[in-house]
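S., here's the first fold you wanted:
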Amino acid sequence: MRKLLFWSLTVLFPLPLVLTYDALATEPEQLKFYIFLGLIAYTWWLLAIALSTRPRWLERFVGLPAIYGLHGMLGVLAVISAYLHSNNSYSPSRLARHLGDWGFYGSLTVLCYAVFFMSGWIVDRSRLLQKTKNLLETVFRHQVSVWIHRLNLLIVAMIWLHAHLLLRVNQHFPFMVLLDLYTVSVLSFYAWKKWAAPDTYLMGKVTANDPLGESTRRLTIDLEGNSASSQPGDFFFLSFQDSSAVGKEWHPFSVTDNSRRALTFTIRQHGDFTGRLDNLELGSRVRLEGPFGRFESTIQGHDREAPLVFVGMGAGVAPLLSLTAAHHTTRNIHLLWAVRRPEDAYYGNVLEAYQAASGGRLKITTKVGRFRRSDLDKILTAEEITDGGFFIVGPNPAVLASQRLLWRIGVSPRRIHQERLTM
């Protein structure tokens, strides 16, 4: 129900603008329809910009994956709507036509770039495309991608001016006031979140930066001033403020262990940014945005007698470890942890301690390599398959593969939960 209400924003958000223009304009119905499509495309771009700020209250309502999903879908729908508008309407103003065309082709370019580099919609499902992306990211690094994505602000400005130059549109004063109100409200909200609100974010200092195996690090951050209000399974976006060796760009990491004054993160070093964490010095200041995540609230919504099955791959065990710590004495939990090498099971002692204190409620299965169907047929009980709540964390392609595998053995999609943070 929550997600249905959330996705209804695609209809509700443009509606006041469309109805106002419909009440004032006198164009033929066919032309008016294509003008509606242009208005809808414009409001969808504005809504996508607003969603890109990751409002925490909305994230707690539907989850960040749903916000990212709608954000990406709005980009696709807006381009389609803008294309139909552009090819079926006309304007006597040459500048207005040029601005409309530039806005459309700019949005199409940004959309194609985002689909390949930022969304994971296609790349996460193809090894060849994943390798191509990894190669291209030596040039198109994450921060470059962020700035290309921000070209949407320029596109909105061009379309806003395009509308103001059209006589059939700008002659309706109430409509123009509403159009400007939409634009100013969204852009002001975006500017506040990006340049003013960071002063309200949590701040901390790196107090530990320890290697765990060859490609994983455990980072501990002591918080300054305000304390964290995170729940088990949550994640934060981190930005290292004064470390030139790492950079200030924002990246999401799950919390392994949390208290009100310190947070511990387990981070797999597999990209350009995380690969530089070896150089992060103790005492480096960190800005934290969050917490985000719905794993804990989802668990609270499950039948308390039904088992929980946690599937972690590599460093993906991080949020599952905090969930296990919170529930191993009160819920039946089966933790499945896939590692590359035996020495990568670096939290084995911690999990054994939880298992000893669980009174038989916690089962742990650690495997070198991915879990296959033959493995799951042996280690999962009939009750876990039919009633269990499954929580999957790991690299995006591995999460998708595990999800498909669980479907095949009879686990209902409604009981499979995962948080892929690509946008």
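And the second, which I think is the more interesting of the pair:
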Amino acid sequence: MAGPYTQPPADPFGHGVLPPEAPGETTTRLRPVRERRTGRRVAVVVCAVLGVGLIGGALAGMWLAAAEPGKPAEPAGYTEAMDLWHNAPVDTLFPRTLAGPGAGPGAAARTWTRIVVAPDAACSPAVLAKGLLATLRPLGCERVLRATYTDATASSVITVGLVFTRADATTQRTLGERGGLTTRLGADVPPALSGEGTVAARFGAGQRASWWLNAPADLPVVVTAVSGFADGRAVPSPQPADRAMAAGRTDATAQSGLGHEAKGITVRFERLLRTTVAAAAKEKNAR
């Protein structure tokens, strides 16, 4: 759809030809030559002063404009990314299988299989943690897409969320600053998405073990992930992924690699989104 019509700006300068200057008087009885030259000198001086002032003002304006920092450029495909939630197929946004080379403990490979997909939803406490919802609502929280995956052994489950916003590029850059969203929001664990008849049937609030949130600077999206055990065991103290991955941890969450699961899958989904956005932008430019 074409944008609204904008009338071109009017020419600020009148380019009409001025009438020829009227000839001066020929008599010198009332206008002695001495007085005439003095008047011309005064006029020249006044014009010179005004000219210097105008030029100086123009130069000052140019210097000030040059001193102002330029507005950061919007990342390529940023606008197209805002509409991916309804433009891209579900298998593109949430692939049926997702490879994670080096995503597990000790750089072990991971493979995740999609087992549940939820309909797109409005931003609400049912699909977003309280702190994240409060952070994104003022920015224009657009839509939330979620799916749950399991690992190759079907012993762990992980819910991935893609939260699309209307934040401008400058605001989006600030979301991931100061240690990232996970650090800033504290124990803001994303909701789990269970699936009847799947290994995620018992994946609920009490089964969440580790989580991660990230706001890529070049996409108007927040990626969330929360992992847990597929056997439905309760986890009394969920841990953010970086803490669950810390050296020396011996608890079940750390030994099972659920922190690696949560953080590793968010990284893969960010890469996947960038690839999808690049393809959408390329298609748009080819039209």
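Why I say that: Residues 1-38, 42-68 have pLDDT under 50 and may be disordered. Strands lie at 97-100, 110-117, 141-151, 156-165, 208-214, 221-229, 239-240.

Talk tomorrow,
H.
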